[in-house]
């Protein structure tokens, strides 16, 4: 368990909880603790889905600018790779991941939210990639994941201007998937994640990998990725359980074992 980031597990749901007062700024230590929490969530069999959460007041307001301000070009050449890969560890969790966004999710905080599969936001949440206002660009996936999520025109608007986006606009452009009262965001995110506690884990994993890897390649290659994942699931016990249950009892009644 890290000083500022911890993994809390209950009922099949792992919450990666950021807790660095006051704004959950993502300094190097927090970045590496996020990587450790994501790795633990990946490895633990009792974690079936993951919630990213920064607390009731703020998700994460971005990188620690005071830490970055004195870094040279050569310093950032060495640090930029680990920065990207620390958040990338969240994106590579082979389980459903939902970001519960309250308050600000700016810069690196927005990039962390982009690593989730879906995003639930509070009505008063504010998101954005304001790096351009510091004379730089997003460096932890913002130019890439944001573009894939909302399209190039909207991504360019947000990145070029650095403007903040309120929850209603974020929902309209597809940056978030659900907007809720602030006091309901975490509970709804946990409820969404908990539905996978009894799911066919390897099928969910295969679905996520097929979608994510398919976005990176042409259609024919994506179809081949899907074909291989589809066929491989016929080696799992859950496939046998699911089909047998369907034949005997109808859909949606299988008791999967996660193997």
What's the total helix number? 11
* Helical amount: 40-55%
Cα-atom radius of gyration: 19 Å
Shape field:
globular
Strand content range: 15-25%
Cα(first) to Cα(last) distance is 28 Å
In the sheet with the most strands, the strands line up as 1-2-3-4-6-9
Q: Which structural category do the helix and sheet elements fall into?
A: alpha/beta
Count all strands and give the number. Answer: 9
Largest sheet features: 6 strands, mixed
User: Low-confidence parts lasting 5 or more residues at pLDDT below 50?
Assistant: none
Mean pLDDT, all residues: 96
- SSE series: EEHEHHEEHEEHHEHEHHHH
Write the layout of secondary structure elements.
Layout: E1 5-10, E2 13-18, H1 28-43, E3 49-53, H2 65-69, H3 73-91, E4 97-101, E5 104-106, H4 108-114, E6 118-122, E7 126-128, H5 142-150, H6 152-161, E8 164-166, H7 167-173, E9 178-180, H8 185-194, H9 201-214, H10 219-232, H11 237-249
Parallel strand pairs: 2-3, 3-4, 4-6, 5-7, 6-9
Antiparallel strand pairs: 1-2, 7-8
Helix pairs in contact: 1-3, 4-5, 5-6, 9-10
């Amino acid at each position: 368990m890290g000083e500022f980031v911890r993994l809390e597990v209950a009922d099949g749901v792992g919450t990666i909880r950021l807790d660095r007062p006051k704004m959950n700024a993502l300094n190097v230590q927090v970045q590496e603790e996020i990587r450790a929490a994501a790795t633990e969530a990946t490895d633990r069999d009792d974690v079936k889905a993951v919630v990213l959460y920064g607390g009731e007041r703020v998700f994460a307001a971005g990188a620690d600018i005071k830490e970055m301000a004195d870094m040279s070009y050569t310093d950032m050449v060495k640090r930029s790779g680990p920065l990207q890969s620390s958040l990338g560890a969240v994106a590579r969790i082979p389980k459903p991941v939902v970001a519960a966004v309250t308050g600000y999710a700016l810069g690196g905080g927005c990039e962390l939210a982009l690593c989730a599969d879906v995003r639930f936001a509070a009505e008063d949440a504010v998101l954005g990639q304001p790096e351009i206002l510091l004379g730089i660009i997003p460096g932890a996936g913002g130019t890439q994941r944001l573009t894939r999520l909302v399209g190039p025109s909207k991504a360019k608007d947000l990145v070029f201007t650095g403007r903040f986006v309120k929850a209603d606009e974020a929902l309209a452009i597809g940056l978030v998937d659900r907007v809720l009262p602030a006091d309901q965001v975490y509970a709804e995110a946990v409820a969404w994640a908990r539905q996978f506690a009894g799911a066919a884990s390897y099928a969910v994993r295969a679905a996520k990998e097929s979608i994510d890897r398919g976005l990176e390649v042409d259609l024919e290659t994506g179809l081949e990725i899907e074909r291989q994942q589809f066929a491989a699931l016929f080696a799992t016990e859950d496939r046998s359980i699911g089909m047998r249950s369907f034949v005997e009892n109808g859909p949606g009644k299988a008791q999967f074992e996660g193997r």
